[in-house]
Write a structure and sequence with these properties.
Blueprint: H1 4-18, H2 25-31, E1 40-46, E2 54-60, E3 65-71, E4 80-81, E5 85-86, E6 94-95, E7 98-99, E8 107-114, E9 127-130, E10 141-146, H3 159-166, E11 170-173, H4 185-196, H5 202-207, E12 210-212, H6 216-219, H7 231-241, E13 257-261, E14 264-268, H8 291-303, E15 308-312, H9 332-344, E16 350-354, E17 361-366, E18 374-379, E19 398-399, E20 411-417, E21 423-429, E22 440-443
Parallel strand pairs: 10-11, 11-12, 14-15, 15-16, 16-18
Antiparallel strand pairs: 1-2, 2-6, 2-7, 3-4, 3-5, 3-8, 8-9, 10-20, 13-14, 17-18, 17-19, 20-21, 21-22
Helix pairs in contact: 1-2, 4-7
Length: about 450
Amino acid sequence: MPSDQSRLTKRALLKAAAAGAAFAPELRALAAPGTGRPRLLLGPLLGPPTETAITLWGMTSGAFEVVVEYADNPLLRDARQAEPVRAREQDGFIVRPRMTGLKPDTEYWYRLLVEGRAHDRQDVPLGRFRTTPRPGRRQDFSVGYGSCANYAYDPIQPIWNAVAEHRPDLFFNLGDNIYCDAFEPFVLDFEYQRQRDVATYQDVARNVPQLAIWDDHDFGLNDHDRTNPIKADALAAFKKYWVNPAYGLPDTPGVFFAYSYGAVDFIFTDGRYYRDPNAEADGPGKTFLGKDQLAWLKQTLKESRGVFKVLACGSGWSKNKGPGGDAWSSCLTERNEIFNFIRDEKIEGVILISGDTHIGEFNCIPWSEQGGYDLFDLVSSPISSRQSHSWLKREPEIRLRTPPYTIGPNAGLMRFSFDDEPSMTWWLVKPDGKATWAPATFKVSQLKNGVSSWKQYMDS
């Protein structure tokens, strides 16, 4: 909270300003704080935790000071306060306060104070989160993920209630997190802000750390690619509203990054910024990721020490959309290069996740037939968008659930277990919290060269 001295200073500066006095710009800023009622307009949203720190996201009603108060108990006994941050107009009054000095694998409770005041609504509980275990530690945890959140189609989005009920340790937004579909940059802000304000999302945003990549509708127009004329604006907006640990490389902009939680490495790809148009003929010269991101992906896979390596992409990994389709099917040469690299470098434990299709899918790319092992594409879509029946015309390498889930919204859930042999159990959940079909469990011993396992997952 502001000290008595700082209050006196502000009063004096405001009085001087009223009298027409001139003073330095930094003092003018101090003399002109936000006006009106200080409050949080959007948020809080949790960024990804580390062992000892976490960053929050929020938007205030003006140029106000924001402080996070937190403790390792729900009564906030012996609470600490993070370094204050001041919302600025040039940042859209968005703040990212950061809590540091935390203990690994520890649950914390927190609240945001805007100009020393807690949230106006008394029914809003404290937020809570858990820091990550030490790197490489084989500790059980769960992850939720989804894609295609179309506010205009459904502003209620009940699937978030199911995610909150399961309360995973992390949630991945795999693209089409908004539907911009315009070349006016202001539409990006508008869509992000109204999606961020969805009532059912608040519990998840406040209590489940969020990570994100994009797909076509939050990148540009439908099925858009590297030719998007506002891709720099889309990237700037993406960085403005998410709290990822990284955004591409210093000389290679984008939304790709890697993140680890205990003994699992997650590798998030950018399938839009450098992507050649779908209609271009496939071949060695066509790219989906761009040469720099492709090199980064290979290096990241090779250096990974995770028991599991989860590759995330907004677009589906299987060939089910066919040549020229808006998925990896339009760039199978580069996709197969990645799969061959996994095989040739003997990289074990790779699982694929994706979104985009407006249906839930359980597909397999049987790379065991190419000397590698079976690569499973676990597809969750939509959070809220019109369901698709174009799957009737699609033929993935192997469809393990026929029909796929076309009834309504769904979210993916992954539970990593290390009690015995490391395994990951996956299923899709409906808005009522129930599974769309029986969960599937993948053991790490199945995900190595020479093993074919897809037949055991086929519908009986």
